[in-house]
Amino acid sequence: MDLILDRIGPRLVLSFSARVNLEGAASEEFKSRLRDIVAGGGEHVVMDLGNVGFIDSCGLGALISALKILRTSGGSLVLANLSESVEAVLRITRLVRVFDVCPAVEDALEMACTHPLRDGEGPA
User: Fold this and answer.
1) Which of 42, 13, 2, 1 has the alpha carbon at shortest distance from 106?
2) Antiparallel, parallel or unpaired: β 100-102 and 76-80
């Protein structure tokens, strides 16, 4: 799994170089890589999920963990360019209420860094 990291100003854009399903072993690898990337926190991250065909509970757990780390340290995570199946999973699990989601990476870049957090906001 090739994750591409692009720094655009104070934001970090993560994307996949090829089509991937985040399930099973791929989900575990994604979780480990994402944890390493956001371990220091303080980043404003845009996650481009356009090449993700499917995401399972482990992949969702990786995104939630990254969101917690980033928000705790003053950073943010915005999901962008969701495939239909990934968007459906986020809606079914009601995680669209937890994550900031944008239709395009360009919109997400504008939202990253500007979304003010309220006390107690974020996943429990």
Assistant:
1) 13
2) parallel
Q: Residues 5-62: pLDDT tens digits? A: 999 888 999 999 999 999 988 888 998 888 888 887 778 999 999 999 999 999 999 9
First CA to last CA across the chain, in angstroms?
A: 29
Give the three-class secondary structure for 60.
helix
CA distances 121 to 67, 81, 100, 118, 124, Å, are: 11, 23, 12, 5, 9
User: Check: CATH 2.40.50.100 for 3-111?
Assistant: no
Token pair 């705790």 is found at: 72
Q: Domain locations in the chain?
A: 3-111
